[in-house]
Structures are given as structure tokens and as C-alpha cells.
Protein 1
Amino acid sequence: MSKPAFDVRNVSFRYHQVAALNGLSMYVKRGERVALLGANGSGKSTLLRLLAGLCFADQGEIAFLGESLNQQSLQDEKAFFSFRQRVGLVFQNADVQLFCPSVFDELAFGPLQLRWPAQKIRERVGEVLRAMDIEHLRDRAPHRLSGGEKKRVALASVLVLDPEVLLLDEPSGALDPSSQARIVDFLVSCGNGAKTVVIATHDLDTLEDIADRCYVFENGRIAGEGTPLEILHDVELLERAKLIHPHAHVHDASAVQPHPHLHRH
Amino acid sequence: MHIPDGYLSPSTCAGLAAAAAPFWYVALRRVKAALHSRLLPLLSVFAAFSFVIMMFNLPLPGGTSGHAVGMGIAAIVLGPWASILAISIALTIQAVFFGDGGITAIGANCFNMAIAGSLVGYATYRLVAWRAPLRSGRRVVAAGLGGYAAINVAALLAAIEFGIQPLLFRDASGMPLYAPYPLRIAVPAMMIGHLTFAGLAELVISSGMVAYLQRIDPELLRATSGTDLPVGPVSAPAGSRTPRKLWLAVATLLILTPLGILAVGSAWGEWSARDFADPQARREMAAASGNQAPPRAVPRGLERLSSIWTAPLARYAPAFVRSQTFGYVLSAVVGVGLIIALAMPLQWLLARLPAARRRRKSFVEKTARGLLEATGHALFAEDMAAADGFLQRLDPRVKLVGIGALIGAAVAVHRLWVLAAILALSSLLALASHIPLGLLAKRVWLTVLAFTGLVALPAIFLTPGTIIYRLPLLAWPLTEQGLRTAGFLILRGETAASLAALLVLSTLWTHQLHALRYFRVPVVIVALLGMTYRYMFLFLETARAMFESRESRMVGVLQPADRRRLAAASAGVLLEKTLQVSGEVHLAMQARGYRGEIRLLDEARMRANDWLRLAAFAAVATLAVWLGR
């Protein structure tokens, strides 16, 4: 078997003197879709930033395709561009991701930085605008987009580089059902092994469709690992990781009893 | 404070832009060296922040409110060089989108507020704060004084720029072509307002934000503090004790600065007046002002005005009191004193008005409404630009240069009828582009008339010349020259503002940026303008949400000091958000391959048709300048 896309070994990371990751180990195989589950502040976003080579571990090591990923390895321009081309990160906050004056400029930003020729950029941007069904937004400014449109443009701005590895930070958070469905459809379409996908989420409803394997985060550590079905049935784990909440509600009009919110009928 | 189009001659504008250029160059280099790849996100996000801060309605002592420019706090958080860039970008966007300050006066406004303001504000802050610990109350005082000094130096520079216009630029009949008032009027007129209201607004925001940062995140003050001392404990009583010290310092300044500043100002006036008679100096001035001969005598109307102040003392006082210089100094001190004397009973009165009536004018509500209007204003312009009309169909590059040339012509011409013709042409362009004239009238014409009309009004009576009418009772003379002077100021302002509005209403910002890129404006500047505009909306929205939620929770009436603290805290929250967003944006840019050198797609070539249209614009502008020479 080929080398894993990411191999994270015993990584610790402190953010403003607060430990965000605490001796965490995990791996992502090539072509695999991995979901990172956990409450807010459990370290999912931090791990994604480390995987994207935007921050670097205080302790431990991260390898990308068998090569060590650290500040030195990204120092060289060629290595930097090659890594950026292969790994794309979609930020949780679309307002952060979209910093250009128009949708077209937004999509052209990545290829321009990676020194693609102008003609190729124009073609590729047109292609992605069509594929993501956002052609009509081409000249729109980010502040004129709805939340769902922003997310789609943010995703497109990364897909335009056609990265092998896609890192997504809560791609369907705070979206209306229809916009959410579009994102989920896209993630489902990545399921044939064409792309390696790592998604941070706390949306358990769509988990089975969008992920092959899950990690559950708790205070900067891995609290559990397994297929979506295994994880969804481990109620005690989900409760401990604050992904579900014991919730009182009426079932058969007679008894009111506290029990976990998540259930399957 | 924001100099509009038509107040300064083209040569003054060019001179000030040229004077600003080396500062921009040095600032860009220094900041780039210090910030590396963080330059772009930090500066553009901070420029957007200062833009939004300028919209905050700050409650001032005396029951009034005012707006700050924010160069003091920018210099304190970013350092003077980055502040020069951030404020310049904010001023440019203000001039282009909101008509605050003229397009041709961007260089002058940046020189006064962004450059001189940042440097003076920073120097004052460092000098007064010296090596005080980060949480020391002294830093709050220093920040307040820094902001106060910054805005007043900027105002003084603007006043001097206004004041030299009538000395240097007159038409054949000796009539002023641009700002009509000489230094002795321009300086006190500008300074009285800035030493009181505008200065206090700047003081409130600078000191309030530093006090807020001291409580929340004092490390943000570290870079410009000049001290390695640990942060130090929170000095609890500082909150109540510091302001009094600050007010005391400002009161002293209020009394002292008019004396100092006006002494300088009138010295300028004296120097210029004497030089009118000296042939050597006349030649120099003529050469400096594009070979226009300066008039032979100082306008007599101004002497009349100054004698009003010295008159009551004249008969009994010794000679130095009877001098004009003393008159101006006295007029300024009296003016400042009058305003303070009026403000105090007003505050007392306001404090006793029924709460319900005061609620309506709450600064929180006013600010929220202002922020919403700014967003709406810009969004509306974007919708207009998407319409299908004559200007909208033009290539943005043609528009940028063509309309720019017309604005230049409007500022340069020396004949009223040519100005009127350009204004008529811009109305025609508006009609051909489906931009309703009613909109132009409301947005541009009335606004300019309200502001410039007020400025121009005294000139009607003060300019010596052929008297055509005397006001009943007062017997003030209305002169033909005075009317024409006022006409010039108003028509120039109207024409330039209309043309600028046409450009904004017919062109998407992204297209304007692409056009700038075509004309080899440095990529970094284009990118800064683009990102600032983008984040301006985000912060306008954030600030509005903040004020609205505050408004919904506000019960009863806040004390003035609490209102000021609230405004400063809101600005502080926004600043924290600003810095956080800039860090995140930097990461997002890196994630897509940014290494500190921004790249933009170059525009396609201009077509023959585009060149033709550009030539048409240029021909009209040239014709106007020639006819109006």
C-alpha cells in the first residue's frame, strides 16, 4: 500500500499559551474521506491548519505523503507551490476565505500566486464557475453574496487549483437546507477515491454519506476512531465529546425520560 | 477637514501629492520590510477599520457629537508608517465613494491627515507616554493628546493651504479663483472648530481606545510603546482618575494653542502681504504659481473684518494691542471661549430634557443609522453600475481617464461659463446613463451646496469690488467680484463632485481596480484598495450589528462619560475583530499560495474604439481648459 496522505504523530500545539492539540496521533489514507468530529474548541480547526502547513507543531511530527511537513520543508519556493497546489483548505469563515473584490478575482487568486499562465487561468476559472453553478456570480462582490453562495465560492476558490487533498472546516455550518445539500452532494461525489478529503464537522446527520472514517476529538486528543456507523452507535463517546446532549423529550405521550438526543428508528 | 475639489488650485494639489509621494514610498518600503507577507491583510483590514471608525458618532462634552479621523489611534497601534498607508487608503476610498474630500485633493488630504497627522500623533504619544508601563494612565493621556495634536496639525495645514490660494491664484481682475480667504481668516476659521469639536472627537476615540486596550489586551500597545516592562497590574482607579487629568491637559492646550498657532498663521499672512509689494518675491510667487501674477494689494475686505475684533480696544490700548496680529489671536481665543461658554449651558440644559426626547437622538442609534446608510449608499452605486447606459458600456479605463481629465479641467478653468458647460455636460452624461438627475441633485448638488455654499457666503460680502447691492439695515456690500468668487467655489465643487459621482455610479469597483492596474499603478496599491473596500462592508455590518444590539439593550439615559466610554469600547471591540480577521485572512491567502508578493491578472488590450472614445474625452477636456484659460 502507498504511503498515507497524512501521518500525524504525537503532535502538540499551543495557541496563545493554551494547549490546542495535546499529543495527538492520526492518519489519513490517500483517496480516503475522513471526518473530524468534536465540540467547538476541541482542536479540529487547529489540526486542519497544521495539515495545511499554515501553523507548525510545537512537538511531534506531521508527514505529507511520507515527507516531513514543517517550516523548513515549505521554505523553498518550488516545494511551497507544489504543496499549495496539492493541498487546499476551505476556511470555516467564508468572509475570511473571500478577500478579493469579485468572485472572478477570488477564483483567479490561487492560480495567479502559483504562477499559472494567464490564458490557462481564464479557462480554468470559467470551467470551475460553470461546474459549481456560480457563473452568474462572476462579477459579484463577496459582500453581495448570500451565505450559501459565499460557501460555494469559497469551495470553488480552492477547487480551481484541483488539489489532491481537500481540507474543509465545517463546510455546511450555518447553511440553509438547500445550500447544505449542495455541499453534501459534492462531498458524496468525492467518495470514489479521486480526492483525499478531511472534513471538520459536528453535523452527525450526513456523516455516513460524506465520510469513510471518523475521528472524535476531545480537548486536543483523539477520543475515538471508527467508521461513521461505529461512531454513531457509541452514544457514550458522543456524549462525552459533547456531540450529543441528553435531552428530555416525549416519545409515546406517556413517559418523559432523559435519554440521548440522537437515536435511530 | 476633508478638502473638497475646487478649493485648491491644480498646482497646489499636484504639489501636495508630490510632497506626499516620498512619504508613501518610504512608508511602503518600511512597512513591507517589517511586515513581510502580513502587510496586505493587516493594512487593508486596518484601513477598512479606520473607515468605519470615521462613521462613529462620538458624544462630546457639551452635548454635541463629532466624527474622528482615527489617525491618532492608527499611529498608536500600527506605528506611524503603517498608519500613513492605512489612513491614506481609507481617505482615498472615502473620496471616491462617499464624496468626502475631493478627487483632485486626495494628495492634499492624505498629506494633511494621513502623513502629518500620523507623524505628529505618534510623536506626541511617544513623548508624553515616554517609558510608562503599558497599563499606565499616562498612556491614556498621551493617546488623547496625540489624537488631539494630530487632527489640529492636519487642520492647520489645510488652513494654510486654503489661505495661500487667494494670494497666489487670481484671475485678471484680481479675483480669487479658489478658496477665497487669506491666512488671517482661513487659519482662525479652521482652527476654532478643530480645537474644540473635531479635536475632542479625536481625543475621545484615541484615549478611550487605549484605555480599552489596556484592560483587554495591553500587548497590542507593545510595539509602539518603547518599553519592555511587563504589562503591570490593572490600575483600577485609573478609569476614573485619568480623564480628569486629560481634561485638564486639554483645557491648557485649548488656551495655549490658539495663541501659538495663530501667531504662526498671522506671521504667514504678514509675510505674504509684505511680499505683494516686493518685485523679487512677486516674481518668485508668479513662477511658483504657474506664471500667474499675484495681485498688487491685499484684499481690503479682510482688513475690514480684522478691524472688527481690534475695534473695541483700539482707542485705549497700547500699539501692540491695536496691531492686526493681536486682533487675530484675540479673535481666536474669543471664538474658542465663546464656543465653550455656549456649550456648557447647553449641556446643562440637555441633561434636564425629558428622557424620551433625548433617546431619539441617542448617539448609538445615530451611528447605527449612519453605518446602514453608508452600506446602502455603496450597494446602490453597485446596482447603478450594473445598469445598461452610455457610461456603463464604456471601458472602465476610458472612463477613469476620461472623467478624471474632465475633473482636472473643471478645477483648472478660469471662466464661469466653461464650468457651467462642463456641469451641463455631466448632467447629459448622467441622463444618457440612466442615472436620474434627481438622484444627482439629492446626493451631490444639495450636499455640496450646503457645505460649500456656507463657506462661500462670507466671500460675497468680503471681496472688494463693484458694489451692486447693499443689504438693508446692515449695509453690507454685495460685490460683483464677491458673487463671482462664490460662484467659482460652488460651481467647481458641484462639477467635480458630479463627475466623480458619475464615475462611481457607472463603474463597478472591481473594474476600476482593473483599470488602475492597466495604468501601472503598483499591484500592492491596487490590492490594498480592493481588500479595503471588501472588508469595509464586513466591518460596517459588524459595527451596525454591535450598535443595534446595544441599542436594544439600552435602558434609561447614559451619562455623557459613559456614552463616551461605550463608543470607545465599541471601537475597541471592532479593533480586536479587525486584528483577528487580518490574521485569519493572512492564513487564507497563504493557503492559496501567497508568499508576500501579490499578483493580479493583467487586463486585455484596449481596442481601437476605446482609444477613440478616450480621445473624445481628452479633446473635450482640452477644449474646456483652452476656452477657460
Note: DSSP finds ten helices and twelve strands in chain A.
Protein 2
Amino acid sequence: MCLAIPGKVIELFPGMPYLATVEVAGVRRKVDLGLLESDMPESGDWVLIHVGFAMSKISEQDALEQMQTLIMLGESEQAMQEVRGYGLDNADEPKPS
Amino acid sequence: MKFVDEFRDPELINKTAEEIRRLADPGRHYRMMEVCGGHTHAIYRFGLKDILPANLELIHGPGCPVCVLPMGRIDDGLALAKDPNVVFTAFGDMMRVPGVQGSPLEHKARGMDVRIVYSPSDALKLAKANPDRHIMFFAIGFETTAPSTALTIVRAKAEGIHNFSVFCNHVTIIPAIRAILDSPDMRLDAFIGPGHVSTVIGCRPYVWIATNEHKPIVVSGFEPLDMLQSIVMLLRQLKAGEAKVENQYKRVVPWEGNRAALKAMNQVFELRPYFEWRGLGFISQSALRIRDSYAEFDAEHRFSVPGVRVTDPKAAQCGEVLKGVLKPAQCKLFGKECTPEHPVGALMVSSEGSCAAYYNYEHRKAMASSLAWPA
């Protein structure tokens, strides 16, 4: 539970300043940006996500390394399960081609 | 070194391990505590113990929030959800954790409306979607998760959601470290500071550990190389007779922490006068409760909580293991009465608990090799 999940900010929503669509390994979910109020990310930025909230901005390199860490720790499947579960919603994943 | 070939840069790992061996005085025994459950998990997963010199011991601290939660709190939370109008929501980690009357999952099997959420904001979403039900979120975690719970409560109030509450079990890491340092049988040399807790609280709250207690502390990342580098930094300090706070995980942890997260926590939570930690007992000002201004979202204010107290069996020596006096396998119950399948004590409850991690990696490995031994 103390491991954070790296994701890329894909879309921000005008009028909903604390919400963003974030992509984690191909899965897109909405996460809350409210805890980055003092240093708001923009579209294309990478963030570390914890229980549905972006906790810190990180570089792309660090994001890739963090994902690698999760894989090495054997936690990547659990992390993806968490991401898929955000929004109580498992439906909007891209279908495997 | 089972996992060494999985490391991204084995050469750098070996060089860092060599540096550790060079810095460690063979005439001295080092005891370093990692306070974060994620670090404990990583240490076993990567077999870091096999890389470290024999006189450098890693002690696994109280950083697994599931483990340190007193069993009675689970019974209390579940008791509130006996009302058929109440939906019990919690993270997946909580679902198999036993209370006296069984785990949340067992209550679900008996008909209670128990649901896994992956974010506190999803519990709030459930409340909006089910206006005729009361959605209670069973909140646990250190400062990494507390801000998310806080912000969810702020949102619930702003949006006027009245069928939502939080059963708050959030704890804070600093008082637990203080309790361990104050313990008379404490024999630690240094600390590996938590990674993601520190993204929120920053490094400043650790300064007293260095200045008052003269123990070095290095905030560390979770990769094997991060942890080995942190150990190098600690050994350098110990060798120079220094004690300061250093940040090995600068790429993620700012010295000042996350201001917005601290603000949200401060807005919604205040310190409880005391709180019980499984394995450590009561620690003053070590946990958070919801401020009166948000009382309508406080399940403990809104409902009548039975206040169940459950003491762990005396034979379980979780406290000694947490303080580094005993190793997991030295506890009388380890691997016998107490296993990950049937946890008796706190540290066997979650995979991030030191006894469960030790059992899953070391104990099973030892059992497998003893069984494989030709008769």
C-alpha cells in the first residue's frame, strides 16, 4: 500500500480543476489532482498516484523506473488492479488488439 | 542472491555492496531500522540480506498500517456496518484482516454489504450513487493516505453529501519512531526513512532523530540500489561520527514535503490524545481523528462505537520484533501457531509485515531446501 503508481496526465477538464485523466500502462482513469494544488501538473506531465490521488510530479525517466520497480517487486499486477478499480469502473480499457 | 539477476544494473549493485563492505567496521555490529513496510517487502523480495555483511542487521519497523491496527478497531468498524443500511468500504488490503468476529470478507460472506474501493473518493462516489444508503469508509494508513481521505471529506462537505462517513484509523509515523527510541531495550544505530510518507511530510520532521537522539536517518527509495545507497550514506555518517537527515530519494521527496497535502490533513484532522498500536501499545498523539468542524463525516461521532479491546496473546512477541530485540523467527509462535494463513500477531497480518515477509521469503525457502535435502 505504500508504493505509488506512475501515470501520465492525458487530459485536464476545464471547470473541474482537480480532475485529470491519467494513463498507466495503457489503462486510462480519472485521478484527483487536489493534492498537487500548489504545483499543478499539465497535460503530458508524469505523476505518482496513490489511492486515486496524484501525490507528486516526477520526470518521465523516474516514472518508467518506478514502473520497473513495481514489476521487480512483483507488485505491478496489484498496481494495475488498483488503477483499473479507480472510479468503480473497469469498462473503459482499450481492448487488446 | 536469488533475485540479483533481476536487478537493472547488477554491476552498480555489486559496486555499492562492495562499498558497504568497505565502510562497515568488522569489529562492530550495525542495527538499522527501516520504518516503511514497502522497504521491508523489498528487502525480502530482493534478498538484500544476502548481499549485506553479516554484522549489518536490518530491523523491520512499524511501517505497515494494516499490521499495527488493533484488532478491536476492525470489530468496531464492522459492528457499525451491522446496520443493513450501512455499506462498509475499505481498501483491498483490509479485506482479509481478521477481527475477533472474522474479517470484512467473512462478514461479506455472512451477508454484510462490504465493498472494496481503491480510493476514498470512490467511497464518496458510491454515496452519491446510493443516496438511500450510508457509505462508511474504513480509513487506514500513514501520512501517505491520510491526505486523500482528508480531501475526500472536504469534497463531501463542499458537495453537501450527507450519507458518507469515515471510520478514521490514520496514524502518524513520527510518534511511533519516538516510542521505539524511548524503549529501554532499544539498540538501533540508524534509520532508513520511509519513501512515500516523506513525499507528504518532507524530511524536516526527522531532524530531532539526528539532533536529539544522535541517530543518522536517510530517506530512501524502494529499488535495491536505492536501499543499498541509503545504507552507504548511513555507514558514512556512522563512520564519521555524524548524525544528520539525508535524502537519497530526492527525485521524488522534496525536503519540505507536499504543502497541499499537509494543508488538507491539517484542515480535516487533529491529533488524538493517544491511540493503540498493535505490538507497541498506547502511544500518545500518534493518530488522527476528524475535527469537530467535519464531525458529520466522522463515523465515530455519528454512530455509537462499541470500543472493542482485544489483547494479543502474551506469547506473541510482536513488540520485541518491532523494536528489533528479536528477529521474526525468534518469536515463540513464529511459523507454528502464527503463520500468514492464521496470523496470531500483528506482524503476520499483511504481506508488508516483517514476520509475514520473513515467512514468505526466508522461512519457505528454508523449508523447501530442508525438504529437498537427501535423506
Note: Residues 1-5 of chain B have pLDDT under 50 and may be disordered.
Protein 3
Amino acid sequence: MKGINHKISGLVLIAALLCTATSAEEGAGVGEKELLRISTTTSLYDTLLLDEIEDIFEDMYNVDVRTVSGGTGIAIERAVRGEADLILVHDVVRERKFIDDGYGISRTCFAYNYFIIVGPQDDPAGIVGMEPSEAMRTIMAQGMENPDQVKFVSRGDDSGTHAREKILWDRAGIDYAEVTTSNLWYREAGQGMGPTLRMTSEMEAYTLCDTSTFAAYRSDLDLVPLIEEGDVLLNVYAAIPVSPAVHPAVNCEMAAKFVDLLVSEEGQDLIAEYGTDTIGRPLFKAARGNCDLIGCDGDECVTPLPEDLCILVAA
Amino acid sequence: MDEIGAGFVRAIELILNLDPAVVEITVRSLLIALASTTIAAAIAVPIGGLIHFHNFWGKRAAINVIQTLYSLPTVTVGLLVFLLLSRSGPLGGFGLLFTPAGMVIGQTILIVPIMTGLTIAALSGIADQVRDSAVSLGASKYQAIFTIMGEARAAMMAAVLLGFGRALSEVGVAMMIGGNIRGYTRVLTTAIALETSRGDIEFSMALGIILVSISLIVNLLVNRVQGRWWA
């Protein structure tokens, strides 16, 4: 009896599997949905801004947007391997290299915010009000002396934020290799901004963070912004479609349309207002009207891409 | 295909040259898993013994629960321990979150059920005649228990080794409680997760090869203590 039951349930299971398989195929067949693969930095993803833009984009076109998030380094690496059609990142040095190496076709700035140094309310290293460079020097000096009280959590994942942190150490006149090997006051998380913030809060440590992710997570954290001033803290987000000349299979057309949405009136409005209804103030600043401030020249800033760009590049 | 082949060669080189980063992460993984296994064994073997040697109401149900917990998802243990150790949690004052000690706590909770269950199974595998003959030869209750535990030691050793294997290869607790901090809580599994997404495939493969090799050795040991080398 038992044996028969097993056989029956096995058959039911197989039948169920077959049904799912066929219905999935049917789904794909209807209208030939296109696919757009976006490889994004964690801040746009963790703040859920991208989800919102994706929904609008999917309503505009018959397209399925799939987003994977990682630090800028990871996001670019995926695109280099041809696993993405579009990257949304924030590290101008590596963006230029990505384009110069032929992987990206054009850079479009669409949003910006600032980096801040956040830490515990009681500020054990006493950095509040300092210049960024001085703050970094102070955190290191105090951390070496008293690693139980003063800690710094680094992204440690080659992200744009990690790259900026290295620049800050450099500006402070400190060799980065010296920082990573100095002591346990410096912890490399190797994770995205959200997890790194949680870790920083748990450890009562300091970290470098973008204002948008911090605002989105702030209510769950025992951290306050301590350093918010300084040109070196400006953080610009750019979109770069992956070149069909290097990876012929990429969906360059859809990537370009997505960039156009980002820089459109509607897209820029959304970016400028996003967060007002949930946390009471905007999370990002739109690039529109601020091109000089954020250092993006003419056609890099909030300009739709030329219509035949993908065809030209592929040829 | 090229990438896999080249990565494999580079990975072997990293291992043979005793790359400091590879060695450091491997040693840390082994130490943390060893600590978890030792503590878990100290908990699981006595509990397994107590359950086996006593008849009580709900015994069968207790064993069922333990067996269900064999496949306890590592992320649920991670979540539970995170809530306990987090600064706002009941044990927050100890500052154990994102430390190796926190990882040991998590892995211990993870592997106690499987080690307890397998201990019970090991003891059940010893025929009742052993107990009967021990008692008939004048053994007290406790002497009889020690006789049976002695007979079951191979199977119990296997239980401990399996627990070690699970602790070493899990990633949920290590990531959620350890936090993958370089030089502090970064272990084989979390390093593989990070380096793969970062694109350092060779390094990941080297760590992966080490992880599989250790699992193989553990398995061979399990078979060895059970007296069947190549079975």
C-alpha cells in the first residue's frame, strides 16, 4: 500500500513539474519580452530608488529588468565579463578606464549626493567639526592607541565608497597599506553599504557612507553624521551602457533607453523627490542643473544618448 | 572553459606556495570550526546519552524534533544568534556580534542537534545484549552505561566529525554573525563568496579546493573510525 502511495505522489510531483515548465515557456512566448540586465552599485539598490525607476521602465516598454547589486568594482567586473547591459556606478576614475578599455560606450551623470563620516553619538575620537583629512588622521591615531574604543569599518570590497575612502587616507597623508596592516581598529567588512552600516552601528565604530544609504538606514542605526563638509566628499552617480562591440549579445538599445529615462524630466523629478514620502526628505540630488557643481562636462550630464549610438558602436 | 583551467592552475600554485592569505583564512576556519565542535560535543554527547538511557514521556517526539533540526537552515540560526547578540538583544552587552566568539556560538547551536541525534543513533546501534551481559556480569547501572558508550565510541566519533564538517562548510552563520571581516572573522566559505563576486576567481578556487579537501579528509576519517576505510 505504502509503495503505491509513493508511486502516486511521485507521478503527481512529475506532472506538477511538467505543468510549471510548460506554463513558464508560454509566459516567455507572449510578446517576446526583452531583457535588460543592470549591474548597480549598492546605494541605488539599498535605498530602493532603482526599484521605483525599474517599475516605470517596465511599464513603458515590454522589458524585464534584472538588477544585481555590488560595489562599483564588482559591478564593473560583471560588465567586463558581459554579464550586464548597463552599469550604474560612482567612481569616475574606474568609469573612465571602463570606457577607455572599450567596455563602456558613454558616461551619463544622473544623480549625486555626498559622502559623510558617520560614527557613534558620543564620538570617542572627537572628530566632529574637523576637515575630512584631519578626521581620518585622528581616527587612525586614536584607533592605534585605543582599539577598544575607536574603530573604523571599511567596505573593503573595491566599491566606489572604498575607493573614496582610500582617497581620503591619501589626502590625509597616510599610506593605505599602513592602514590595512596597522591593527584591529581597522575592520574590512567586504560587504555592501547596508550591511557595513549595521556592522558599524553594532561595533560603535566610524565608517564612510553616502548620505542616501545612510538616510535610508538611519532609523535602524545608532550612528550620527559627524563630518559632512568638504569637496572631496562629493559623490556622483553615472550610467554607462556596455559596448555591443565587445559583447555582441548585450541589449544596448534597452540600456540606452534606460539612460534616457534617468535623464528625462520624469526621471530627474523622481530622483529629486525620492524619499520625501518615506523619510521626509529627498535621498538623492538630481544632476539636472548642477552639472558644473558635480564636474560632469557637457554631453556627459543629463543628456539623452544619440539615437543611433548602439548601431554606430556595434559597426 | 579557459578561465576554469587557468584558475585551477593558479589556485594550485597559491596552495603549494602557502600563500599567506590562503593559509591565514584556512587556519582561522579550522580553529573556529574546531572550537564549535568541541563545545558542541561537550553538550551533545551527554544529552544524547541522557535521552538514550532514560525512558520518559515524549522521548520519541524529542528524538523527532532533534532529527528535524539536522537540516536547520544556517541562515535561521544566523538570524536567531544575530538577534541574541545584537547590541539591542538580550546578550548585546557582551559585544560578541561580528567576533569569532559569536561565530562559535552560532556554529555550536547549528551542529548540536546533528551530533545529539547521531549520538543517540550510535548508542541505539549497540545491541541490548551488551547491556544485558554487562549487568549480568555484575556491572552497576553506570558501569553498564560506560560499557555501552565504549562500544559505541566509533559511531560517536563519526557524529562529532560530521558536526565538524557541517561547521566548517556552512556560510550562513559565518556571514551573518562573523561579518566576513578581513583578518578577523573571514573564513573559507565567506571569503569564497566575497572573492567570487569580486572577480578574484583563482583565490576563490584555491579556497574551494582546500574546503573540499578538508571535507574529503573528514569523510575518510568518518569511514576510518567506523572501520571501513574505502567503503
Note: Chain B has a mean pLDDT of 90.
